Amino acid sequence: MGIIAFAEETAATGANAAVPGGGSSAIMSILMMVLVIVLLYFIMIRPQKKREKQIKEMVNAAKVGDSVVTIGGIAGKIVKIKDQYVYIETGVVGDAEKKGYLKMERDAIKSVESKQSN
Questions:
Q1: Domain range spanning residue 20?
Q2: Contact, 70 vs 86, CB < 8 A?
Q3: What is the pTM of this model?
Q4: What is the tally of structural domains in the chain?
Q5: Which stretches of the chain drop beneath a pLDDT of 50?
Q6: Burial code of 72-93, b = ≥16 C-beta within 10 A, e = fewer?
Q7: What pLDDT is recorded for position 23?
């Protein structure tokens, strides 16, 4: 009779011990996935959003006379800004007759170099 009681007690404690161990590994795997997502956010997403914000501020601060380069690689000088469009003067250096003007959206500007004030 003592052996049966011992066997029942061992089975009961073994079953109870198995449940928390299994739940613990599930919690650990969920925590690891959350940790990976948080790391990806801080390594990839956050710096990209910060860079986009800087570019948007730079483009919004552009003014007439600034030299710009578009995302298509066209370099020129801003001659007019109207709403969400900028008018860029391009052409041959030193030949005033061959200058051209392009109307582009502000979002097409890749970089802005402000004119120097003397």
A1: 1-61
A2: no
A3: 0.59
A4: 2
A5: 15-19, 118
A6: eeeebbbeeeeeeebbbeeeee
A7: 73
Q: Quote the pLDDT of residue 4.
A: 59
Least Cα distance to 81 among 95, 64, 57, 66 occurs for 64
In a domain, 105, yes or no: yes
Residue at 118 is within a domain: no
Q: Which residues share a beta bridge with 82? A: 85
For the purposes of burial, counting CB atoms within 10 Å of the CB of 99, is it exposed (0-12), middle (13-18) or buried (19 or more)?
middle
Residue identified by tokens 């739940």 is 23
pLDDT value at residue 29: 93
